[in-house]
Specification:
This protein has a domain at 115-237. 78% of the residues lie in helices and 0% in strands. It has helices at residues 5-54, 59-85, 88-110, 124-130, 136-146, 149-157, 164-182, 188-194, 199-219, 225-234, 243-270. It starts with a helix and ends with a helix.
Length: 272
């Protein structure tokens, strides 16, 4: 199957921009964590332990409290780094992308399509070879990502256009294939078709349109965050797609681990 590498790059450009912003936050997080670890080890560990021991607490309990404190700060730092580097429209845009990914994953899981994460264009065609059940919207999008433009057009020509959702998706994917092939596209037909999408499919369709609008904006050198942030403001998204929801999810796991460890240290101290 012929592959156009320029098409691959056009499709991935928006996601590369998002990853660059995320890596900046991650780098800041690592720097802050390293500084915290050094500060704690050199200046704080002994005075803190001494102050806790002076209260009469057993050694194991002191160790558990110290570990809980350090781990709490260590877990908080990545999220503080994200809030510093990723805020405002960028944060809302990334939340919209998170919601889009969750909606698409749920949609295809409901069809019985279970895919491993695809991170590079080179992984797409082998995935399609392994999963013959992938058809329609997902197949066209993946073929466009792989740079298999002609194959995407052939698949698109066979897609049904019987319902309002079908017509919207055909219009949107026509623009996607045109963009990866030529670097330009017109989303006018997709915007018109969106107005007729029923309420139960509207939010997911709006996120799809916002994502492709962001792709075009990024290619034109304009802020890609604007259309995604606008979609984020217009719809309700799952809590786990938000920065706060992801933080709470991590804290639940963390609290269980640290709580169990601290309880274990207290039990050991009582047996001394």
């Amino acid at each position: 199957m012929p592959v156009n590498q320029a098409a691959q790059l056009r499709y991935e450009a928006l996601f590369r921009a998002m990853r660059r912003r995320s890596r900046l936050g991650l780098g800041l997080c690592f720097a802050a964590t390293a500084l915290l670890a050094a500060t704690y080890a050199i200046w704080l560990a002994r005075p803190l332990a001494g102050a806790l021991l002076a209260t009469g607490l057993p050694g194991w309990t002191v160790a558990g409290i110290s570990a809980a404190l350090v781990l709490t700060i260590g877990l908080t730092l990545p999220n503080l780094a994200q809030l510093i580097v990723i805020h405002g429209e960028t944060a809302r845009a990334i939340e919209a992308v998170n919601a889009w990914a969750l909606a698409e994953d749920a949609r295809f899981r409901s069809m019985g399509i279970m895919l491993k994460p695809i991170r590079r264009a080179e992984q797409v065609l082998p995935t399609l070879s392994e999963h013959a059940e992938i058809r329609g919207l997902l197949r066209v999008r993946l073929l466009a990502w792989a740079g298999a433009v002609e194959a995407a057009r052939i698949e698109l020509a066979g897609m049904p256009a019987e319902t309002a959702v079908d017509r919207f998706e055909v219009a949107l994917l026509t623009s996607v294939v045109s963009f990866v092939d030529t670097g330009s596209a017109d989303l006018g037909d997709a915007r018109t078709a969106l107005a007729n999408v029923p309420a139960e499919d509207y939010d997911r369709s709006l996120l799809n349109l916002a994502l492709e609008t962001a792709r075009l904006e990024h290619a034109a050198g304009r802020p890609w965050q604007t259309p995604l942030a606008a979609a984020r403001r217009d719809i309700e998204i799952p809590r786990r797609a938000t920065f706060l929801g992801r933080l709470l999810s991590m804290w639940r796991t963390y609290a269980a681990i640290v709580g169990a460890g601290t309880l274990f240290s207290i039990v050991l101290s009582l047996t001394d």
